Amino acid sequence: MRRRSGWAVVIAYALVVAVTQMLWLTFAPIDTDVARDFHTSQAAVGWLANVFPLLYVLLALPAGLALDRWFRGSLLTGAGLTALGGLLRLVHQDYAWALAGQLLVAVAQPLVLNALTKTATGYLPARQRPAGIATGSAGQFIGSIVALAMGPLLEGRHHLGLLLPVQAAIGVIAFLILAGVLARHAPAEDGPPAAIGVAELRAVWAVPLSKTLARLAFVGVGVFVALSTYLQPILHHNHISSTSAGLMLAGMLAAGIIGCGAFPPPVARRDAARRYLIFAVSWVSLCCVLLALAHASVLADFILVPALGLILLAALPVMLELIERDLGAAGGVATGILLLAGNAGGLVVAVIVSLVTGTAWIAFLILALVALFGVVPARRVAGPAPTVPAPQPV
C-alpha cells in the first residue's frame, strides 16, 4: 500500500512539473501571432518565456532551502502559484496580464522543480527512486511537447480565447490532484531535517559532487536551451521551414522522454553514472559536429537532433539520482544548485549562439565545444559517498 501511494504522489508531482513547462512555453511556438494580438513586438513576447530562467537563477537556492525544511508546504505553494499564474492570464487578454501570470509561474517553478529528488526520496523505496526521478524529469519534456503542439493547434483556430483557459484548467486540476495525494500521505523520514540557512548551503557546496554536477548541468542545459531556442533561426538560412525545425525539436523531446525511461534505472543499478555521463557529453559533441557538417540536409537534421536528445535529456535524471543517493536530506538545496547552474548555462550559451545563428556550421561547432567542456567534470564523478550531514543552525 505504501509503495502504491508513493507512486501516486510521484505521478501527481510529474503532472505539476509538466504544467510548469507547458505554461512556460505557452507563447513560444506562436510568438508572431501573439505579438500581433497583444500589439507588441516579438522581442517583448520572448520575455514571456525569458523571465523563467532569469528568476530561476535568483530563486533556486531559497526554494531549495524551503523544500528541505518544509517539503509538503513548499511544494504545494509552488503548485498553487503555478495554477494561479495560469488563471491570472485570463483576467484580460493583453500583454500586461500575460506577463503577470508568467512572472507568478516563474516564481513558483523553482519550488516545483527543486523537488525532483526529494519527492522520490520521501515516497519511494530506495530501489525505485531512480525510476521516480526519471518520471519527474520526463514530466518536464512532456510539458514542453504539449506546449509546442497545443499552441499552434488551439491558437490557430480559436486564438488565445481557448488556449489560455484550457491551460489554466489543466493547471488547477494538477494542483488539486497533488494537494489531494499530499494531504493523505506524508513523506517517509529520511535522515535528520536539514537546517535552513547559509550553513546548509555551505555544507552542500562543500561536497565535491555538488560542484561537479553543477558544471555538468551548466554544459548540458546550456546546449539544450541554445538548441531549443535557436534551431529554427540556424536552419532558416538552409531554407528549412519553421515547421520542420519544430518537428525536429519535438522529436528531440520525445526521444528524451524515451531516454529518461530507458537509461537512468539500469545506470543506477550498475553504478554506471560516471560512464554514462562521459558518454553523454561525448555523444552530444559528436552529434553537434555532424550537424555542423550536414546541417543543410533535412534528413540528417531529423536523425541527429532526436539522437542528441535521446542521450542528453536522460543525463538529467542520472545526475539527480546521484544527488538523491549521496546528499540525503539536503536534496532540495543540491537540486537547486544543479538547476541554477543549468539555467545560468542556458542563458550564457544561448546568448553566444544567438550571435552566430547566421552561420550554421559555426553555431553547431560552438555547441560541440561547449559539450566537450563536460568531459572533465564527468570524469570526476565518483562512486557512492557518505551522505552529507545536516549542519547545525547558525
Structural overview:
80% of the residues lie in helices and 0% in strands. The chain is built from 18 helices and no strands. It has helices spanning 2-24, 31-38, 42-69, 71-88, 95-113, 116-123, 129-158, 160-184, 198-206, 208-236, 242-262, 264-269, 273-294, 298-312, 315-327, 331-354, 360-372, 375-379. 55% of the residues are buried.
Oligomer: single chain
The class by helix and strand makeup works out as mainly alpha
**Could you give the order of the helices and strands?**
HHHHHHHHHHHHHHHHHH
Mean pLDDT: 87
- Measure the end-to-end span: 40 Å
User: Strand count, sense and closure of the main sheet?
Assistant: none
Q: Indicate the radius of gyration in whole angstroms.
A: 20 Å
* Count of helical stretches: 18
The stretches of 5 or more residues where confidence is low (pLDDT under 50) are 190-196, 388-394
Shape: globular
Number of strands: 0
Topology (elements, then pairings):
Elements: H1 2-24, H2 31-38, H3 42-69, H4 71-88, H5 95-113, H6 116-123, H7 129-158, H8 160-184, H9 198-206, H10 208-236, H11 242-262, H12 264-269, H13 273-294, H14 298-312, H15 315-327, H16 331-354, H17 360-372, H18 375-379
Helix pairs in contact: 1-5, 1-6, 1-7, 1-8, 2-3, 3-4, 3-5, 3-16, 4-5, 4-8, 6-7, 6-15, 7-8, 7-11, 7-15, 10-11, 10-15, 10-16, 10-17, 11-14, 13-14, 13-15, 13-17, 16-17
